[in-house]
Amino acid sequence: MKSVFFDVDTQLDFVYPGGALYVPGAESIVENLNKLTRYAEQQRYQIIATADAHSEDDAEFQVWKAHCVAGTVGQQRCAATLSTGQIVIEKQKLDCFSNPNLRPLLKDLAADHYVVYGVVSEYCVKCAALGLLETGARVELVTDAIKCIDPAAEKAMIDEFTARGGLTVKTDFVLARG
User: For the chain, how many helices (H) and strands (E)?
Assistant: First the structure.
């Protein structure tokens, strides 16, 4: 089975208090994010990392507070999720599949298994997880390595994801496969 780890928007503006669009409690998943990243490195699994990269006057800021402006500290990825050889897919919209380079990359990688984690569960993680299911691959959502804004919306997202054939796992389960 060819596995790819899919890290969604683990950027300073989302993960840590003081970030421009901080997700409350997101710092609590950093240890699991680090474990998943190091495991993927050890197993030589490709990591695809999505990252918001907005302009200073991005249209998205009419809906969301300004965040992850390209070149700012807040746009940087968390140290826990940095990895040599990871492929970063920058995006200006919630959906990582809005970047026209993602689908061809996935086709070239020809993975049959994705492990998904990051922030925000009911927004960008949802777009990534559901989009990856459309590839026909096995998609696992690491539920102790995601964080939401609205727990009810996160539950609805997980229910939709599993109804479409996605699987939920915990970090320790992923690590134990090694």
Answer: 6, 6
Backbone angles phi, psi at 136, to 5 degrees: 90, 0
Q: Look-up: residue for tokens 């727990």? A: 151
Q: What's the domain count of the chain?
A: 1
Instruction: Using a cut of 0.70, tell me whether the model's pTM lies above it.
Output: yes
For 10-50, what is each residue's pLDDT tens digit?
A: 999 999 999 999 999 999 999 999 999 999 999 999 999 99
For residues 138 and 132, what is the distance between their CA atoms, to the nearest angstrom? 9
**CATH number of the structural domain spanning residue 77:** 3.40.50.850
Residues 6+ apart with CB under 8 A from 103: 97
Domain that holds residue 140: 3-176
d(CA 55, CA 113): 33
Sequence-ordered alpha helix ranges (H) in 73-164 = 102-109, 126-133, 151-163
- Express each pLDDT in 121-156 by its tens digit: 999 999 999 999 999 999 999 999 999 999 999 999
